[in-house]
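Researcher: Sit down with what I've pasted below and flag anything odd:
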Amino acid sequence: MALIELKDVSKLYGFGDATSVALEEVDLAIEQGECVAVMGPSGCGKSTLMNIIGLLDHATHGEYTINARRAERMRHAQRAKIRRDKIGFIFQSFNLLPRLTAIDNVALPLLYRGLSTGKRTARARDMLERVGLHDRSYYYPRQLSGGQTQCVAIARALVNDPEIIIADEPTGNLDTESSRVVMELLAEIHATGNTIIFVTHNPELTRYATRVVYMQDGQIQYDERKPLGVIGRYARTATYGPEESDEESAMAGVSALMKARDHDDVTVKPKAKPKRRKTTVRRPRKTTAKRKASV
């Protein structure tokens, strides 16, 4: 059985005429060790799907099974225990507590498990070292860059050694360089056997996924399995449009060249200006009186 399995899952908000459908009869199965990228336009149901998978929300209809356990049959305490021990969350807005240092933010999930202060601090320090921030352990979130803050959030998500990492737009607030650092870190985590599900609008980030799920209007429109390092074909097409083939590109170039030549042929050349005649200045003839004087 798959680690995560959704069958005919729907999520409705509101009542009566004001009812809106966030998810509509979604079927999805994710195996242990997969790295799944979820794409789609804003409002298509990506975050709602993540909340249901992460047991932060209930499905209105359908069945959701995680680790062979039916979510709708779990009590509130059971759902909370699975979220604490089995699932790590990474949010776009980081969600770090501003009055706690980096190491205290990372150690916070361990507090709810009843670990002693010494064990919490040691594990939190190990996680910060894993993400390359051991020298920023006692910095506050306001003293860190966006990429460093997200790395602290990743360390917090990993401190309980979860089976599943759910990342909702983990690079949404980061620049290109910081985004690359965060995704490379998630790739390292995936290589150790963790199951990762992340939401993104950037088709370039699908290189880090083994599978791309594209959503539209609350439904899964396309589900593509692919090798690591390759951009999802459908994700690229849906974002940028279809790529032109070499033949189409060549024909377009020839057509543009022909149009340019036709334009040159019909262009009216300006008339040449008429040449001005060269006028010769004649010297005045000497009068008879002047000739006699000169004699």
In short: Residues 32-58+75-240 form a domain with the Rossmann fold fold (CATH 3.40.50.300). Strands lie at 4-13, 20-30, 35-39, 61-66, 69-70, 87-91, 164-168, 195-199, 211-216, 219-225. The mean pLDDT is 84.
